[in-house]
Specification:
There is one protein chain. It is built from 13 helices and no strands. It is mostly helical and 278 residues long. It starts with a helix and ends with a helix.
């Protein structure tokens, strides 16, 4: 998640530089293609890295013992349906929060709050730096005290503070709005610092990648990429500029309820097939 935030920050920097250097006509004509060309080159680098990556030691041990699942999709759905549902519910606020903070709010700054694009860039930069400073130490903290306390703190933080922070966003003060944006990014950092590790640790090695992918990506498709659209629709439909906060709160309640059903996994002995591998 730390590297994902870096990616969003670099993307924001790239677009802002292009909008500063190029005229509006040039940006509309060809400038918008430049980030995609850069991304294409980076995609080749990413493919190279992916092809060079080794499997995890646990999976390599399964290969050596001949216990790799022959039909991981079928086995995951049959034997790991509960953690699949859990990871799906867990990352609802993970994704809603992430897309609201890092994708929707920069547009919210210009379209709803009527600040300049430069103001929006400063705000997303500050929010990104806050998240980058918090994610790694909070992840280490979850290793020490457990995943669930950190996840519960993040979900409760969204449930309690989303509304007042959106009020602050709409106060009319640029400094207050940037502070509110940074506050939302800090809460998101709390949750994402532990969510992906907690989700992966719910699964046995035989079905970990498959089961995790099903639950996580279905949730991303339903609640992640759609979050900016839903937030915009709620604002237009209700005429209430605070309405996106309600969506974040509902997502937080769903994820909090899911966390309460999960076992603590940090520092716990591996189970099932993993126990034999260990």
């Amino acid at each position: 998640m730390w590297s994902v935030v870096i990616g969003f920050l670099l993307g924001s920097v790239t677009v802002t530089l292009l909008e500063t250097i190029l005229s509006e006509d040039a940006m509309n004509s060809y400038g918008w293609r430049i980030p995609f060309l850069i991304a294409g080159a980076l995609g080749v680098v990413g493919l190279y890295i992916r092809l060079r990556l080794r499997d995890t030691p646990e999976f390599e041990a399964l290969q050596e013992s001949g216990e790799v699942s022959e039909a991981p999709l079928r086995e995951a759905v049959r034997t790991a349906w509960r953690p699949i549902l859990q990871i799906g519910g867990l990352v609802v606020i993970h994704n809603v929060g992430f897309y609201v903070v890092f994708t929707y709010l920069p547009t919210y700054f210009t379209k709803t709050l009527e600040f300049t694009k430069t103001d929006a860039f400063i705000s997303i930069t500050v929010a990104s730096v806050v998240a980058l400073l918090l994610i790694l130490p909070l992840a280490a903290l979850s290793d020490r005290i457990g995943r669930k306390p950190v996840l519960m703190a993040g979900a409760i933080g969204f449930g309690v503070f989303s509304y007042p922070l959106f009020l602050l966003l709409n106060s009319g003060s640029l400094v207050a709005a940037i502070g509110a944006h940074a506050g939302l990014a800090a809460i998101e950092a709390v949750f994402v610092s532990a969510s992906l590790a907690a989700g992966a640790e719910l699964f046995a090695t035989r079905v970990r990648s498959t089961g995790y992918s099903i639950g996580y990506n279905v949730s991303v498709a339903l609640f992640g990429g759609t979050a900016p659209y839903v937030a915009t629709w709620l604002t237009d439909r209700t005429g209430n500029e605070i309405a996106p906060a309600y969506y974040v709160i509902v997502a937080a309640v769903v994820s909090l309820a899911t966390v309460l059903t999960m076992r603590e996994t940090a520092g716990k002995p591996l189970q099932g097939v993993d126990a034999k591998v260990q």
